[in-house]
Amino acid sequence: MAIKMDGKALAEKMRREIREETARLSRRPTLAVILVGEDPASQVYVRNKEKDCVECGILSQGYRLPEETSEAQLLELIGVLNDNDLVDGILVQLPLPKHISEQKIIHAIRPDKDVDAFHPFNVGKIVTGEAGFLPCTPAGIMELLKEYQIEIAGKECVVVGRSNIVGKPMALLLLREHGTVTICHSKTAQLTDQTRRADILVSAVGKVGTITGEMVKDGAVVIDVAMNRNAEGKLCGDCLYDEVAAKASYITPVPGGVGPMTRLILMKNTLTAAQAHLDKEKKPQERFAP
Ligand code: GUN
Predict the structure, then answer these.
(1) Per-residue pLDDT tens over the stretch 35-68
(2) How far is the CA of 12 from the centre of ligand 1 (A)?
(3) How far, in Å, CA of 200 to CA of 222, rounded?
């Protein structure tokens, strides 16, 4: 039976570390969180992010905008937040209403405030392995793998899902750690043939039952990124948990696995942004110091 990877406990440890770091800064980091419309899941996510901010010593500025908000109005708000030196991070909760281009919005956020690491400038840094913001969910998963001392170098890593938020950056971070990486998606032929090769299997599809026991190699490490509801309305991931856990060596539960880690990486990115902004503020004084 697999060992459960406890994302909640690790996130709690990281929360304490971030709180200690923010307390050392000359001002508190600030995260602006923008929600457009009334999507119930997004409302929960945003509330959780604001709660995390409080617990990490980060100030959150919430902007709840009506569904009818125009793209121009949202761009204007982002412009104001870009220019405000006291705002370290800007997060626009996705998905946005259909009449607003997510791409235009992501491009409008200043890269040094892009704590989601969605801007092409930051995506480029992830590709080349330069230091910068971390993609929240994949970086949270990497922290979990590290905590449980799971070797990545030389391992077969299979990522199911090719989204810009999870699948693609996940593959890049595993590759950075010298995994042999395969990305699978809705058009992959013989998915089971691919997943059964995996030493580390990451599923980020968002469909109950995507990964069954027979799709998993004995002893594999299985990371379930999804947050679905089953027929009884209970939260669950992509994996049929009991049958997958019977074969895996390690598995992330849903809830309590990847989710809490994703949230903490966002806090870490906001801290990183504030540290960079404070450093920049200090520089001119240092230049003129005796
Ligand atoms: N919607 C679902 N996941 C995310 C995320 O990580 N960031 C943002 N901004 N929106 C999301």
Answers:
(1) 999 999 999 999 999 999 999 999 999 999 999 9
(2) 21
(3) 6
